[in-house]
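Dear colleagues,

For the upcoming journal club I promised to circulate an example of a predicted protein-ligand complex. I picked one with glutathione because it came up in last month's discussion. The inputs are reproduced below in full, followed by the predicted structure.
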Amino acid sequence: MSQTLSPAPHPDPEARRGARKLTLVSHPLCPYVQRAAIALHEKSVPFTRTDIDLAAKPDWFLRLSPTGKTPMLLVGGVPLFESAAIIDYLDDTEAPKLHPAHPLERARHRGWIQFSSDMLDGIGALYNAPDAESFAARAKALRARFERVEADLTGPWFAGAAFSLVDAAFAPVFRYFDTFDRIGDFGVLTGLARVAAWRARLAARPSVRAAAPADYNDRLARFLLARRSHISALMAGAL
Ligand SMILES: N[C@@H](CCC(=O)N[C@@H](CS)C(=O)NCC(=O)O)C(=O)O
């Protein structure tokens, strides 16, 4: 009887990692990339980060990525796309687990990760608002989402004592406000005490600090100024 055997895993963990070299294809300002970088750091997984110019996407990237968006994680040459799928894969393959073990809780966490993606869309809508009126309406809509977060947040991390992928997904949301706060108080986070404590805790987490370049705030400020939107006009006086 013939038998098909898969090769035995190499006994050396470093050699095993080598067979599955990880490259995170990134953009310095991309909040979705930060999710993956945070998960990799939390799991102490070595990886190479390759930044690309999203205004002039390289051919190799377009060939590999069906969406043409960052992040893309190359796993030994296999392209993974969509940040939620990437962090799920990392959680399936690398310890410690950052998703809850219970399927019901895990599904709830995935819902909150999608909620944070919708908030990133809301942040994009805010910084692209063309005038004061639309800016105020978009700030109000974003605040309503943060009020919902304030109500559902357990603390000290989103779901209690353990740092989870929901924390990894929200950290880049808050990072925008480090730059927004230099421009003005848009009333989005005002008076949300539990959210404020969570934001401060996330900002101090080594994985969160390492997920964006040191000059992130200055890069983001330049990006916002170039939008020629309402926020750019506010910045002309504030920065
Ligand atoms: N749903 C995607 C969103 C990724 C995304 O929007 N990436 C942006 C940069 S932060 C991008 O690559 N934009 C370039 C483009 O859309 O052409 C995910 O979660 O990975």
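Two points we might discuss: The chain has two domains: 13-93, 103-238. The radius of gyration is 20 Å.

See you all on Thursday,
B. R.
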